[in-house]
Amino acid sequence: MELSKEKHTIAGKEAAEKLKNLIPEELEHYNHIAHQNKAANREAHEAWIQSLTPENIRKANIARNALTRLGIKGFSRHLKDERQVKRPVPAHALFLKERFNSGDMHGMALPDAARLIMREWRELEDSDKQKYYETQGQSRARYAQEVKDIYHRDIDLSAATPAHPATAPAA
What is the pLDDT along the chain (171 residues), one digit of tens a residue? Predict the structure, then answer.
């Protein structure tokens, strides 16, 4: 095995030396071929993703997570697909995003700014939080509808992040 590793090291050094000695016209030619191959590979990958159903991609990503947890390498990257359902956004995350986008935290370290914003969230009156909880409710309803439309299954959001008590239906 060590011999094979040496061969690869030598081959790599020889290839690097050849690359260094290429004239600009040859280098441009190989760069052009590399860009063509990259574009062709990207198109083939996108076509393959589109040939799968969103449910197949969701299940594949769940399997990739399981393989990663088992320590099996090579499956850590999720398959990306714009058809996948985006999770609902919690109320505190909406507030956090709004505060970051306000520019008031410009120049602050991210952990410090996040800590400060979350302290603001905890101290915010329930009436001021209401608009964020309403948006969260809309996000949850959108999520449930998209799961039904795309994955053809119903989900129970009652086990997910609970709605704010002021917006929860009376029991």
Answer: 455 778 788 888 888 888 888 888 988 998 999 999 999 999 999 999 999 999 999 999 999 999 999 988 887 789 999 999 999 999 999 999 999 999 998 899 999 999 999 999 999 999 999 999 999 999 999 999 999 999 999 988 776 655 665 555 444
pTM (2 decimals)?
0.68
DSSP state of 155: -
CB 165 within 8 A of CB 98: no
**Whole-number Å distance between alpha carbons of 163 and 88:** 12
Q: Look at the block and give the residue holding tokens 């359902």.
A: 85
* Tokens linked to 10: 């030598």
Q: 């999520």: which residue's tokens?
A: 143
Cα 138 from Cα 144, distance rounded (Å)? 10
For the chain, first and last CA: distance in Å?
68
User: What DSSP character marks residue 108?
Assistant: S
d(C-alpha 161, C-alpha 138), whole Å: 14
